[in-house]
Amino acid sequence: MVKIIHQRKKCIGCGACAIACPKFFEIDKKDGLANLKNSKKIKNDFEIAIKDKNTNCAKKAVDICPVRIIKIRQ
């Protein structure tokens, strides 16, 4: 298992993560920022544990985010 960590407070709402990885990211209709689907808030960030086989999609979101606020941790 790996964790996707999303620093939502720093999101600029470009939507790139939701396009690259709609399995885990969506744009909030209220504020226009990205949400990490089914995540839990841990301090200031949002986290979700995923199976290793699902990391390709998450890695695309990490790579495409212009403000580098998405991380993958083992």
TrEMBL record:
The keyword 4Fe-4S does not apply. InterPro entries: 3Fe4S_ferredoxin, 4Fe4S_Fe-S-bd, 4Fe4S_Fe_S_CS, Fe-S_cluster_ET. GO terms for molecular function: electron transfer activity; iron ion binding; iron-sulfur cluster binding. This is Ferredoxin. Residues 2-30 form the 4Fe-4S ferredoxin-type domain. Pfam families: Fer4_15 (PF13459). Keywords: Electron transport, Iron, Iron-sulfur, Metal-binding, Transport. It comes from the Bacteria. Ferredoxins are iron-sulfur proteins that transfer electrons in a wide variety of metabolic reactions.
